[in-house]
Amino acid sequence: MRRSLLVATAAAAVLTAGAVQADEIRIGVLYPIAGTGAVYGEPAMHGHNMAVDELNAAGGILGKKIVSFARDTKLKPAAASAAAKELITKDGVNVLVGGLSSAVGLAISEVARQEGVVYVATIPKTIKLTTEKRHDHVFRTASHTDFEGDAMGQIVAKLGLKKICDIQLDYAYGHDLAAGIEKGLKRHAPGAEKVLDLRVKLGATDYNAFISQIMGAGCDGVTSGLWGSHFVNFAQQGSPFGLFNQIKYISGGEIASHEIAGKMKGDYPDNVWSNTYELWYHHHDPSHVAFQEALAERSGTKETAMWPVLAYIGVKFIAAAAEKAGSMDADALAAALKGMSIDTPVGPRTIDPETHQADTGQFWGPMVKKEGVDYRVMDPVTFIPAVIEE
Amino acid sequence: MTGRMTRPVLAACLTVLVLLALVPLLESNYLIDLFNEIMIYALFALSLNVIIGYSGNVSFGHAAYFAIGGYTMAILLTTYEWSLLPAFAASVAFSFVASGVVAYFCTRLTDIYFAMLTLAFSMLVWGVAFKWRSMTGGDDGFVGVDVPAFIAERVPFYYFSLVVIATAVAVLWVICHSAFGRALLAVRENPVRAGFVGINTRLMRWWAFVVAGTFAGIAGSLFAMVHRGMYTESAFWPESATVLIMTLLGGMYSFFGPAIGAASLFLLERLTNEYTEYWPLVLGTILLAILMFLPEGLAGLAQAVRRQILRGR
User: Fold this and answer.
1) Which of A315, B101, B167, B281 could form a disulfide with A51, with the two C-beta atoms 3.0–4.6 Å apart?
2) Architecture of domain A146-276+363-384 in CATH?
């Protein structure tokens, strides 16, 4: 019984393991495809596939067809680590791309380090990925928590806020964003004082205890990184208490993206300043018009989401680096990515050769009501570049 | 369950051992990782069966000791830069002590109360792993375990793992088939009677719990090394449920049953994940099927089939 089971599984596994085919480029894609994270993973996959299709239509990378192998990360670092390893050892991918939460990003990066495969982080923002946990093969095309914290410091200064409550998710991104905000406040708003530090578990749905603490602390500004459904729940529970009339809410959680505004519609609270990588209605770069039209066609809606552009840029960087390196060899690819510049639908991007971090700025602004539409839009839109001035 | 291994069982064990030793010859990193994880889960499930199959109690919190072993190993190797042997010994010792303390309280109770208390303690361990961010990495997990250089490569680590697990399973077998194991079975079958013949039933159940916890700790410390990381999910209750289902699937009335259950469930999950995200649905169906049709698990099924064949002759 045991013997036959073993032999059968070994045989099955050998059959499915399949050797890497030399005539194609394999990209391992890691986004959350099911569950809570699918809201982001699904649009991200749209952007990824769009870039791959565009490249394949133009002859692929190095004349070879690109094939994507997608695995679900389930928003969990342990699952992401196992999936990344399997993509490398079983599917024989040449490069890894993706990741959503910072914890997942760090876990994938560790596998990339062990296995000597290049990993391009398209969404995770923890500063650690490109500082203390940086290695030869990890690169980031997303923004990071120090850039965001600095921008949030600028907004606090602009709004003249004095007492700040900080509410963050209790994992890498939240902790690092809190540190980034602290530095940003010191630089731009030294008069502002942080009076409350709150930590919420990733995936939490009940915010009542936190809301009453914020309202009791008497702050005039709230800084936060609550993203996606975390913010949606927080806002829906806080609004009835008048939380958003009492404070200005400044968020680095990309809640200015259209997927959140379009989803919340009339529930979207007042006094929110936030960021986004892309806005379907804002053409910062001329090439954005064509990109947005193509994406709209692919997604089946005129009002497209923000996440696709991140996944799209990740693939474009890999393609450009491979063409420059002339191979998919990890070390050659990594060398090519250092200092690499490409044009993207949201403007040119360059990866710093030292830190492996792209200069990814974001659009920031207040979310206001607009006549004729039932969702909020950012107005005015300000592009804050990825530059920290000491 | 006699004190000596019968010839066919011994032959089967040796065959499996040889086959496992030959895995690296297939030169597939994927298969090496796969079999390494299967072996780890097999040991984990076998350890749980000391509580379930031998002492007759159900633990809903066995993941706690797996996680304790794993985190201890990860932290000692990486944060404190200990070398392998002391770190390994300390992680086993710590699993022993932790399960000893928990067992002291849990073995005061039986049945559902026992099960709930094991669950409560495991959530406590999870809480510590989640909140003690500076030490465990919290929700991000402990990423990047420094595995000693001589076993850092895949193949040497696989053989290291194989030797540790084979030894651990052998020791477990001896324990379960000793006078102690038989006394445990007596406690499982009828604690009152066992008490009357002079068996200290609570002490017996305490030892069963501690043996189980310690061997789960060994499995956990290997897990931390093979993944080069340890995550809070390993201490969370679904992990305890998974290993419980592995044990039930394989068959709790057979020593090797849980190992078969672990291998089957692990492979099934891997295969299912490639085609669909509805693994929990598959898992639920399996659990339902075991409870309804296979109360003695795969091992019980195999025995029934064998009996049928023998009778047919």
Assistant:
1) A315
2) 3-Layer(aba) Sandwich (3.40)
